Structures
1.
Amino acid sequence: MAVLQILTVPHPVLSKKCRAVGPGEFDASLARLVSDLAETMYAAPGVGLAAPQCGDLRRVIVVDPGNCTGEQDEDGRPTNPRFLALVNPQVIEASADKMVYEEGCLSVPDFEENIARPRRVHIRFLDERGVPWQRWFEDYDAIVVQHEMDHLEGVVILDRVSRLKKGRYLAKRTKVRVRHDGSLEY
Ligand SMILES: [Zn+2]
């Protein structure tokens, strides 16, 4: 296990669409990716992490929404880590009912914004051994899973706020110029 580096915007990998993990790829490399992502998430600390945030373009996320409320040791690490790995996650059904939550992101430091997402989502995914699952996620759990799934599409929370807010944030953080169509000029 290793703590990986977390990429931050405007790193170009964060806007790439990830590729599905194939049937023959549930191997040692995938197992290592999952355990490294979990260790990196707990070290941050965070409640979810997507592979592209660490520069890997496989469709893999880890989540542990209970991490912020669970018991921790003196180093701030959970004493009973129970993360869930979702490989190739897909939304089967989403509630019309929305929930607004002030989201932050390890790849977008010092930025929080209210974002509305479906309150309940039914997700189909594979675990790290390739076993298929279907599960409903609700409320905060649903927010975390949807946030991490956005990363697999190359979408970060900055892409869900106004162009003006996004431009202001990026201008403050970097020397990057934002074109009128919202794309970035390096
Ligand atoms: Zn994020």
Note: The chain is about 20% helix and 30% strand.
2.
Amino acid sequence: MTAVWKTAWVTGASTGIGRGLALKLAADGVRVAVSARSTDKLGELARAHANILAIPLDVTARADVAAAHRRIIETIGPIDLAVLNAGVWHPMKASEFNAARVADSMSVNYIGIANALEPLIPAMMAAGKGQLALVASVAGYRGLPNAAAYAPSKAAVISLAEVLRLELQRHGIVVSLVNPGFVETPMTSVNDFPMPYIMKPGDAADRILRGLARGKYEIAFPWQLVTTLKLLRLMPNALYLRVAGRL
Ligand SMILES: NC(=O)c1ccc[n+]([C@@H]2O[C@H](COP(=O)([O-])OP(=O)(O)OC[C@H]3O[C@@H](n4cnc5c(N)ncnc54)[C@H](OP(=O)(O)O)[C@@H]3O)[C@@H](O)[C@H]2O)c1
């Protein structure tokens, strides 16, 4: 994979999938800028790996994200790959609807990506190349119980990735959409329901990087969960609502 990218920026890299991605990219010789709010965790990563640069930020702060983008380019050079992965999961039942949770989910999971895309797209267009990976979730395919705050934010990311893939390919920019199933990270550690086919973050990172290296559009895993959910997506609404209502 070393030949594919020289530089990368991974958001949400302090834990979980993002951390796994940063470690694997760095092990492959890529110069990686890692972002999240936890300065201590990013600092540990940077101290342990000479080619990891810690750039702490809150993805919801638009000006800070633009400043971080400038700093990364000044320090490691033009960004070949950006994995926009920072995210939050706030379980929320419709009966406990809370607009603040919805706002936080949208601002981190969706607006956080938009804040990074704003400086990334013109820089990659000027270079005539680059790769953008937007991390959504299989939870964005259809409405799911308990996900009134999360699922719509991921559905928005899925839609955005498609628009960007269509429009940016003529500028030499490859856009990929990453839809993981369950991965064992701090995010899922709060869940008290069964999580079929749950996998380790290192395994998820391998699958993501393999797909990205091939320029794949959608990187979704594990196949068993993805196939089931995609079949549910094909179901007529009335049938889906009956099936999902029993979950
Ligand atoms: N785990 C799963 O089963 C699963 C399934 C489908 C999709 N995903 C998606 O995969 C991505 C990574 O999730 P994960 O499972 O690896 O969870 P995680 O371990 O909780 O990681 C989330 C990352 O996002 C960062 N983050 C959260 N809010 C932020 C903010 N305002 N600004 C900057 N960084 C922020 C966190 O760092 P700080 O707290 O230090 O800021 C952390 O690095 C998310 O987008 C998630 O929705 C996960």
Note: The chain has a mean pLDDT of 96.
